[in-house]
Amino acid sequence: METKKYKILVLSDLGDSTGNILKNTAHLAKMIGGDIGFFHVKQPSKVVKQDNQLSAIRSINASYVSTKKEIEQLVGPISESYHQKIDPVVVLGNVKEEINKQIQSFQPDIIVLGQRKQVPFKLLGDSITQHVLSNFDGPVMIASHDKVLEQDQELSLGLFNDTWECLKTALAEELLEHSNQPLKSFRIANGHFRSEEIDLDKKIVEYNFSTSDNALKNISKYLSKIKVDVLFVNREKTGQDKTNINDIIGTFNVPLLLTGGPNF
Question: Which pTM was predicted?
Answer without folding.
Answer: 0.86
